[in-house]
Amino acid sequence: MAQARPYYADKGLSAAFYDAVTGADPRLAGDIDIYAGLGATVGSVLELGAGTGRVAFALAALGFSVTGIEIAPAMLAQAETKRAALDPAVAGRVTLRRRDMTALDLKRAFDLVICPYFTLAHVPAGAAWRNTFATAARHLAPGGLAAFHLPLAEVMRLPGPANADLPVMDHVLPGGGRLRLFVRERSFREAVGRLDQLIEYRELDAKGAVRRSTLERLTYYIANPTPLAATAGLVMDRAPVELGGVGEIWVFRKD
Ligand SMILES: C[S@@+](CC[C@H](N)C(=O)[O-])C[C@H]1O[C@@H](n2cnc3c(N)ncnc32)[C@H](O)[C@@H]1O
């Protein structure tokens, strides 16, 4: 097996199978409806860490105009492939750019800023979080909302599976192959709120032979977002919205 690489890197299977994995994960169900419900009208949305466009294209199909920024070329490439298969009217409502959410200034305001599926947790919970909250505030008019989906600390603290050789996901792929995910290592460092995981992605063909496998590093950081958001002038708008038993969507308002 190849050496461990970062999640969403070029040639990694976490990027190649992102839509298959998220589509099969019930713990994400309903997130798009929550973001759509935060927009008073079908206005403009800035998505931080847009990935393969899972959320951006769904919001565009509901009528929102979405600008998605994303740091990983492998994820953006998939989003552009998906765009080509969409209704041109929907595709035309989505703009995607390769940018870093911790240092972004598009010099315009949006009706809503969203940072779905643990994207903020991918960067360290200090200056990088403060800078990302500043990005959100910079792109909102006073009264605008910013939503951040964060993992629950108690779930991050859980130990890995007792048997690392049992897949945590076993998904049937089109054509009869399978995608299996294994947690090879998992450790949480309380002092810095950091979860490190080594995940093996293994793709099998219809006969059960391994076609490809990669070992990928997935790191999440967690902290109380409220004081860091406050430094950017963002205040809590409501109690966090629980999602799938593993995370919460925190909604802040620009004062
Ligand atoms: C879990 S995916 C979420 C993708 C999409 N928002 C969704 O909900 O399906 C997290 C994404 O955030 C991106 N990301 C991580 N750090 C980033 C940064 N500093 N700036 C922009 N994107 C970043 C990753 O490359 C990845 O595509």
Characterise this structure.
By secondary structure, the chain is α/β, with parallel strands linked by helices. The chain folds into two domains: 25-152 and 223-254, Vaccinia Virus protein VP39 (Rossmann fold); 155-220, N-terminal domain of TfIIb (Single Sheet), CATH 2.20.25. Helix content is 25%, strand content 35%. It has helices at residues 13-16, 18-23, 31-38, 54-61, 73-84, 88-91, 127-138, 153-156, 225-230; strands at 5-6, 44-48, 65-70, 94-98, 110-115, 140-151, 169-172, 178-189, 194-204, 210-221, 234-236, 241-243, 247-254. The strands form two sheets. Strands 2, 3, 4, 5, 6, 11, 12 and 13 form an eight-stranded mixed sheet that branches. The protein has a five-stranded mixed sheet with strand order 1-10-9-8-7, with no helix packed on it. Strand 12 (241-243) and strand 13 form a beta hairpin. It is globular, with a radius of gyration of 18 Å. The model has no long low-confidence stretch (mean pLDDT 96). The protein binds S-adenosylmethionine. S-adenosylmethionine is lined by residues 8, 22, 49-51, 54-55, 69-72, 75, 100-102, 116-119, 122-123.
Q: How would you briefly describe this protein structure?
A:
25% of the residues lie in helices and 35% in strands. It has 255 residues and is of the alpha/beta class. Strand 7 (169-172) and strand 8 form a beta hairpin.
Spell out the blueprint of helices and strands.
Blueprint: E1 5-6, H1 13-16, H2 18-23, H3 31-38, E2 44-48, H4 54-61, E3 65-70, H5 73-84, H6 88-91, E4 94-98, E5 110-115, H7 127-138, E6 140-151, H8 153-156, E7 169-172, E8 178-189, E9 194-204, E10 210-221, H9 225-230, E11 234-236, E12 241-243, E13 247-254
Parallel strand pairs: 1-10, 2-3, 2-5, 3-4, 5-6
Antiparallel strand pairs: 6-13, 7-8, 8-9, 9-10, 11-13, 12-13
The protein binds S-adenosylmethionine.
